[in-house]
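F.,

This is the one I mentioned.
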């Protein structure tokens, strides 16, 4: 670690971790909006608890886009404390102020923030004439409707530079944020209209803008720093209006997720709160000094003030008090409305429509969208610069000539006649392409907005408890309009109206502060009454229609849909503090229960279907494993800007975890890929009830589709996958084929690639290149969207991505870098890290075959039958994939778990090795240039040739001598041969060693069976050798079963060879070997704990500075000495885990101690791997740097000891570090991508 010394105390226990009595909800316990088709159990309750009702079941769930957080642990003061590692803090906080008219982003590093919280970098934008702090919320999208071209001023310039026909093909979205405001039907299918009324899904447009900011920030960080920051180093904050409902906030999270932001690295900040946090620290308050002079001072403890966020779309107003500890207390629920700056624009456009006519404006918008955009921009500029206090009597706007032409064509009147017979004749004049408007008329455009802002502020100030508020803090872009500021100062002359020097940046900079210190917001005032729909007792006065025929034991009628209140509108709630729990019944044997959450503006709603009541979300309780009826306690709290829910069993105090409703697995194969899924309910009943998608090859249905993806010429959007991709590609003209990208069998690019990174490129079949991570992400995205279609068409209910937990399979012999690369691709596809696991392919197969009948047992009568693998069984799992061969040894434990007996082995000897041998033969026969010409000039024919080879390989069986195998030869290949060689194809075999085994006739080539069999030889021999090497090990002597799975296991030749070679072992092939990994991955998604331990494939350690010893190379000796006069040396391999060591999953190894230097801000731990048991130095042969882990030591005033330990979590390494003095804990996956 840098140049610091280190010591290691043998036998030292893992350091104790800082303990807490309060826990945040776990990522895996986040309950998303869910729609559940059916639950077991009934509604009936005991009389003594009948007022508590019960969670509903057996009825249709309502649609919701709201996020509700759930904690799986019940935390109260005085309860037993559990260990909780503090999350590794990110290096940078970045904020996006997503405005209606203008947007921007800001950032601050944690080191800078601790030194000076005001040192926040704000991106500036070039408007062409000036530099601004915000850019227009304008995004230009490609004709495909998915990829952004540019944003802000640049988007508008690019659009204006286009020809009209090009403009109509592209999408230009402006000022679209308010689509989310008070939209009761808001969902992921909601659409937005662009400038010319073309529609796209709103979530895609929002995601495109967020993605733009994300990628711009990455460029900013990496161009200004010597350190390569990546997306995982950044914590994001996106601002939202406080008056937005929960559905709109959740929609924004969905867009962020689509843009590639993980849920765990994102917070939503309420705009006025963010501004308040910024202005609390920045000098904004006017204080009188002893000498009578006035100066600016910060808001002090006890200050009560209104934050008036005057945005482009909404006006957001909250009341805050500064607490003694510097926190902020909300005094009144957020208020506001759609009265922001764009209301003025709307009024001006309404005037234009009255003057020119709506059809004329529509013609301008449709036929000349560039001119329409310029008119909008001119209106915006004049609005923002308008002042009532100047002597300026007229405001001039530029009128597009195309608007005047459209008017004359529509009305057959001259523009000069337009003002006749109107009320504007005294206030408006038009001359050529200019319109002048009187100050009097122009001021009226502000009236609606200003009047409503004043009205809302006055109503708040008249509220009891707010009479002592004497400061109005006006922020937001609209606060730069002198008209509205003057109106505020005039109307509220008895109050101090304070406008910061940068009102448009207050929200943005405050959002950065919120990212570092969300706890500043101490309490909030509820905007709604929140409750749960329950079954209760029908009472006199309730509608007769609510009365159910079922009765309690005391003869009282039940009724459904009672609003069981948890939080009341106007109630002050402390952030992070939960309300008193309420009790609900779970019926004996019930596996799941669904709680519906409702919101109302009323204080005491009786039923959830009353006017003003809205279902805002659902929460699924997993009750699996319950043997008897348990009452469930549920309570609601406010965490961050969203609701949090906790549920626990009353008697056992066991947290009730939220379980995603579906586990889906992707088997990403070299030749073939597929996906499978299983619902939680089905898995509990029958864990073998796993649905695997089937694929239409055109002639038959298959369990896998070719790992082939067709990508648009833009290089980003997939068009199709599998057989469909190949068919579409073959249907294209050659010129079109060359424009598009077709990638096939590309998975093995990740195998043993020491240079693998996010910049690694893949070549398609015509050698065009794209980033590998984009290609992998495209395939994963295809599976995600296909699954969504499958779920929604196969069910009465709308499932979302959040209902699904994903598992992607990877070879066990892949290195850590390749696994992390796959995670990056999944993240790019829109999968959050918290909803994804990687499963090792042979382990997944083992988990599946452990429960499926695969083992041969002899009965008393001598007959044999298939049985499951029993406890104590030791066996090899031989995963014969398309690319790799993966072999592991497992033992079934008494509790059903699996213990790995030997580290994973294998290599690149899968089915594609056979294809490579056949193609090598074709190149020797026809010549490599001819094959390349076929590939480049006729890629469709090349694909068909490859497919024919694959089919013949898979169906090949060893049979009697003299058999022949026939392959199709494209006519274009023969033509290319003639042109390249000036030879007739009939003479191709002359003077070759193939003459006896190969013949060509027209478009067919026939090969003898003996010759064709040689193509399998390198693959088969290597597979047999690896298996033999493992079985020859002393500790593997008890293994008597070989479990063969994978797509290549369907080749009769290799399975025949295995049975022949290992005749003394039981060679078992499941009935569906190609699906064993896929279905096992689904099981892994539900029960990852089945894998109890693994055997390390490498020795892992950290590079440190150590003591030079006799026998070490002289070149390693450093001139610096220790206090005892011993020499230091760098690059010592400090071992943490040894190759061949058995490690339990989730268990960390003994800690090692490292010393940091005084004042050291950051330390970088470099991780190395070696095949040797005891490497001395990290630069020895076979030592490879595999990753790093950054420790933030900011605030480190003195020399500090840091304890570090390594553990195996899931399929990846985890690192845990703790400062010994402060007990500050870091815990994270190591970064393995350069």
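My design for it:
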């Amino acid at each position: 670690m840098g140049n610091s010394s280190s010591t290691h105390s043998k036998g030292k226990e893992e350091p104790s971790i800082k303990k807490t009595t309060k826990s945040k909800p776990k990522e895996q316990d986040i309950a998303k909006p869910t729609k559940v088709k059916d639950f077991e159990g009934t509604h009936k309750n005991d009389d003594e608890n009948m007022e508590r009702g019960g969670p509903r079941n057996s009825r249709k769930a309502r649609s919701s886009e709201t996020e509700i957080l759930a904690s799986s642990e019940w935390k109260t003061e005085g309860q037993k404390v559990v260990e909780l590692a503090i999350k590794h803090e990110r290096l940078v906080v970045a904020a996006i102020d997503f405005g209606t008219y203008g947007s921007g982003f800001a950032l601050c590093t944690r080191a800078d923030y601790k030194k000076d919280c005001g040192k926040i970098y704000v991106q500036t934008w070039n408007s062409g004439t000036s530099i601004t702090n915000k850019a227009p919320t304008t995004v230009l999208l490609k004709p495909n409707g998915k990829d952004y071209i540019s944003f802000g001023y640049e988007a508008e310039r690019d659009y204006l530079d286009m020809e009209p026909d090009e403009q109509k093909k592209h999408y230009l979205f402006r000022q679209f944020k308010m689509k989310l405001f008070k939209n009761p039907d808001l969902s992921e299918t909601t659409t937005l209209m662009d400038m010319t009324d073309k529609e796209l899904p709103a979530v895609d447009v929002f995601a495109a803008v967020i993605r733009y900011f994300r990628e711009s920030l990455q460029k900013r960080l990496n161009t200004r720093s010597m350190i390569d920051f990546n997306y995982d180093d950044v914590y994001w904050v996106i601002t939202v209006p406080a008056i937005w409902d929960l559905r709109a906030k959740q929609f924004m999270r969905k867009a962020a997720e689509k843009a590639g932001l993980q849920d765990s690295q994102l917070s939503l900040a309420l705009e006025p709160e963010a501004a308040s946090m910024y202005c609390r620290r920045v000098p904004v308050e006017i204080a009188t000094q002893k000498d009578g002079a006035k100066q600016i001072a910060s808001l002090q403890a006890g200050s009560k003030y209104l934050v008036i966020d005057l945005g482009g779309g909404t006006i957001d107003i909250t009341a805050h008090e500064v607490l003694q500890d510097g926190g902020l207390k909300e005094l009144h629920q957020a208020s506001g409305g759609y009265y922001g700056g764009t209301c003025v624009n709307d009024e001006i456009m309404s005037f234009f429509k009255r003057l020119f006519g709506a059809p004329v404006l529509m013609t301008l918008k449709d036929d000349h969208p560039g001119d329409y955009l310029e008119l909008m921009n001119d209106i915006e500029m004049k609005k923002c610069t308008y002042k009532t206090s100047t002597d300026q009597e007229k405001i001039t706007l530029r009128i597009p000539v195309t608007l005047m032409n459209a008017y004359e064509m529509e009305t057959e009147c001259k523009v000069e006649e337009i003002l006749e017979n109107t009320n504007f004749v005294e206030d408006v004049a038009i001359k050529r392409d200019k319109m002048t408007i009187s100050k009097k008329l122009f001021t009226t455009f502000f009236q609606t907005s200003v009047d409503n802002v004043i009205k809302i502020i006055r109503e708040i100030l008249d509220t009891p408890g707010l009479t002592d508020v004497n400061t109005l803090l006006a922020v937001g872009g609209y606060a730069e309009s002198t008209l509205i500021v003057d109106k505020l100062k005039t109307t509220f002359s008895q109050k101090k109206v304070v406008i910061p020097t940068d009102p448009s940046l207050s929200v943005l900079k405050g959002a950065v502060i919120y990212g570092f210190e969300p706890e500043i917001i101490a309490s909030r005032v509820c905007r709604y009454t929140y409750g749960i729909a329950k079954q209760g007792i029908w009472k006199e006065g309730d509608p007769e229609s609510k009365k159910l025929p079922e009765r309690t034991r005391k003869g009282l009628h039940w009724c459904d849909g009672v609003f069981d209140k948890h939080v009341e509108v106007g109630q002050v709630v402390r952030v992070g503090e939960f309300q008193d729990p309420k009790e609900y019944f779970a019926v004996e044997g019930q596996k799941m229960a669904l709680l519906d959450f409702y919101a109302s503006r009323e204080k005491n709603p009786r039923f959830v279907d009353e006017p003003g009541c809205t279902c805002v979300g659902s929460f699924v309780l997993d009750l699996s494993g319950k043997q008897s009826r348990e009452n469930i306690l549920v309570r609601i709290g406010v965490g961050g800007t969203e609701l949090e829910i906790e549920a626990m069993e009353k008697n056992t105090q066991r947290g009730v975890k939220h379980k995603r409703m579906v586990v889906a697995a992707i088997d990403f194969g070299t030749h073939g890929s597929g996906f499978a899924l299983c619902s939680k309910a089905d898995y509990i009943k029958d864990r073998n009830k796993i649905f695997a998608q089937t694929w239409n090859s055109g002639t038959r249905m298959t369990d896998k589709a070719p790992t082939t993806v067709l990508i648009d010429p833009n290089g980003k959007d997939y068009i199709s996958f599998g057989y469909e991709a190949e068919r579409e590609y073959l249907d294209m003209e050659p010129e079109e084929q060359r424009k598009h990208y077709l990638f096939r069998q590309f998975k093995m690019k990740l195998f043993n690639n020491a240079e693998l990174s996010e910049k690694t490129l893949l070549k398609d079949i015509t050698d065009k290149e794209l980033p590998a991570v984009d290609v992998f992400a495209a395939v994963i995205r295809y599976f995600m969207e296909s699954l969504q279609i499958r779920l929604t068409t196969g069910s009465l209910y709308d499932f979302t991505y959040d209902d699904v937990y994903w598992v992607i399979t990877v070879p066990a012999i892949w290195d850590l870098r390749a696994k992390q690369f796959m995670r990056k691709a999944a993240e790019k596809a829109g999968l959050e890290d918290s909803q994804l696991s990687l499963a090792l392919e042979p382990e997944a197969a083992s988990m599946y075959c452990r429960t499926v009948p695969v083992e041969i047992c002899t009965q008393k009568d001598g007959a044999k039958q298939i049985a499951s693998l029993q406890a104590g069984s030791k066996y090899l799992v031989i995963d014969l994939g398309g690319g790799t061969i993966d072999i592991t040894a497992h033992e079934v434990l008494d509790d059903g778990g699996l213990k790995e007996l030997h580290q994973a082995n294998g290599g690149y000897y899968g089915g594609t090795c056979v294809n490579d041998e056949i193609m090598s033969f074709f190149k020797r026969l026809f010549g490599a240039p001819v094959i390349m010409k076929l590939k480049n000039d006729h890629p469709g024919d090349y694909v068909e040739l490859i497919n024919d080879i694959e089919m013949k390989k898979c169906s090949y069986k060893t049979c009697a001598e003299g058999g022949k195998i026939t392959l199709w030869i494209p006519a274009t290949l023969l033509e290319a041969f003639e042109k390249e060689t000036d030879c007739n194809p009939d003479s191709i075999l002359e003077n070759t060693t193939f003459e006896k085994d190969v013949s060509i006739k027209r478009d067919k080539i026939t090969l003898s069976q003996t010759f064709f069999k040689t193509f399998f030889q390198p693959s088969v021999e290597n597979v047999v050798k690896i298996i033999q090497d493992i079985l020859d090990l002393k500790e593997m002597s008890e293994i008597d079963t070989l479990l063969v799975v994978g797509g290549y296991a369907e080749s009769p030749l290799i399975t025949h060879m295995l049975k022949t070679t290992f005749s003394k072992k039981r060679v078992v092939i499941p009935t569906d070997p190609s699906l064993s990994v896929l279905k096992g991955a689904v099981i892994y998604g539900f029960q990852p704990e089945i894998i109890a331990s693994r055997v390390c494939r490498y020795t892992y350690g950290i590079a440190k500075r150590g003591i030079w010893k006799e026998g070490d190379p002289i070149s390693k000796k450093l001139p610096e000495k220790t206090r005892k006069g011993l020499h230091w040396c760098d690059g010592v391999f400090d071992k943490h885990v040894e190759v061949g060591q058995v490690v339990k999953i989730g268990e960390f190894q003994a800690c090692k101690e490292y010393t940091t230097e005084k004042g050291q801000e950051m330390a970088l731990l470099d991780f190395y791997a070696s095949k040797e048991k005891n490497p001395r130095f990290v630069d020895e042969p076979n030592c490879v740097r595999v990753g790093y882990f950054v420790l933030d030591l900011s605030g480190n005033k003195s020399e500090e000891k840091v304890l570090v330990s390594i553990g195996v979590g899931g399929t990846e390494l985890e690192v845990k570090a703790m400062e010994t003095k402060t007990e500050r804990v870091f815990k994270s996956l190591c970064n393995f991508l350069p």
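The CA atoms of residues 930 and 977 lie 6 Å apart.

Talk soon.
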